Amino acid sequence: MTAAPKRQPDRTRQILLDCAFEEIRRSGFRAASLDAILERSGVTKGALYHHFDSKTALGHAVVEEILRPWMDSRWQAVLDAEDLIEAAIQFCRELPQQGMDELLTQGCPFNNLFNEMAAADAGFGDRLQAILDAWRAGIAASLRRGQRNGSVRKDVEPVAAAAFLVSAIEGSMGLARARQSRAFFEAALQGMIGYLQSLRP
Predict the structure, then answer these.
(1) pLDDT, tens digit, 9 for 90 and up, residues 71-106
(2) Residues 139-148: pLDDT tens digits?
(3) 199 touches 156 (CB < 8 A)
(4) How far apart are CA 17 and CA 135, in angstroms?
(5) N or C: which end of the chain has fewer CB within 10 A?
(6) Which ranges constitute the DSSP H helices of the chain?
(7) Which residues neighbour 66 within 8 Å (Cβ) at sequence distance 6 or greater?
(8) First vs last Cα of the chain: how many Å apart?
(9) Cα 52 from Cα 20, distance rounded (Å)
(10) Pick from 170, 148, 147: nearest CA to 157
């Protein structure tokens, strides 16, 4: 049985969210232009305010409905792998081939928005922190699973290792963007691969 097509209001809302995500990634939330979002989406201002009563409400919805699934799509397969270390190493090896030019010009959308808005607006801060907490908790849980199946050293502290891995990947992305340096990012990834390998028994 095929899924029912989206109703027009639902489709309009999704288009607005997608276009807002791209505008926020390109310009940041504060500089994001509602006029640019409307022009790209082909949606009227009245329709936008029918779905979102403010630019901030639109931004909050982007975090919940676009950014969170975007983060999950990038990391969930790694977190679900039986051997987290091998899956994470493979991810690090493949990452430079996956939209590297976009990374250097636009950066990681989660990293960008967290640095810009987490401390500036409680609605953004709570939503972004929840994504970060879930990501870190997922890594810690995968490390504990690895300790049980023998693929991770027993003396590794999962919560601390998870915090370090999240900080390393996001920090290296931010610095690579600031320096516009592919070489820097690739060197950082090699360092992460070395750290991951050190977690093996």
Answers:
(1) 999 899 999 999 999 999 999 998 877 767 777 888
(2) 999 999 999 9
(3) yes
(4) 23
(5) N
(6) 8-27, 34-41, 45-51, 55-62, 68-80, 84-94, 100-106, 109-117, 122-149, 158-179, 182-198
(7) 17, 18, 20, 21
(8) 48
(9) 12
(10) 147
